[in-house]
Design goal:
Strand content: 35-45%
Number of domains: 1
CATH topology: Alpha-D-Glucose-1,6-Bisphosphate, Chain A, domain 4
Number of strands: 6
CATH class: Alpha Beta
Distance between the termini: 16 Å
Order of helices and strands: HEEEEEEH
Largest sheet: 6 strands, antiparallel
Shape: globular
Radius of gyration: 14 Å
Length: 120
């Protein structure tokens, strides 16, 4: 649970180019309407933005290069809940072994989002 209004949290999530401001380990990020580039140390990630829907408060992206994934789709949903919101951040990835690396990173990302939103 993030103790901020869903629209405020959505504004942070949907600003694709500002990922490095709240996602631990992402040193730099930039985006266009359809793609995002991120740098984590020496690793450069390229992603396609699949969905950025303000009505659903849903953001989806695919990693297209930078990690050894065959398939990848991440979905971030921001759901209103009382005075705050719930963020559901799920990732489908192949090969399955990549889940062991991506899972903890996503958990850290949700914590970073919570911290960034609640401290502003």
């Amino acid at each position: 649970m993030i103790q901020r209004p869903a629209d405020e949290v959505w504004n942070v999530v949907s600003d694709a180019g500002a990922l490095s401001e709240w996602f631990p380990g992402i040193d730099e990020s930039s985006a266009t309407e359809t793609s995002r580039s991120c740098r984590m140390g020496d690793v450069a990630l390229e992603e396609d933005i699949v969905t950025n829907d303000p009505d659903l408060r849903r953001f989806q992206y695919r990693i297209t290069s930078g990690l050894p994934v065959e398939e990848h789709l991440a979905t971030v949903d921001v759901i209103e809940s009382g005075d705050g919101c719930i963020v559901v951040y799920g990732t489908d990835v192949k090969p399955d072994e990549m889940a062991a690396m991506i899972g903890p990173a996503i958990a850290g990302g949700v914590e970073g989002l919570k911290s960034a939103c609640e401290s502003s």
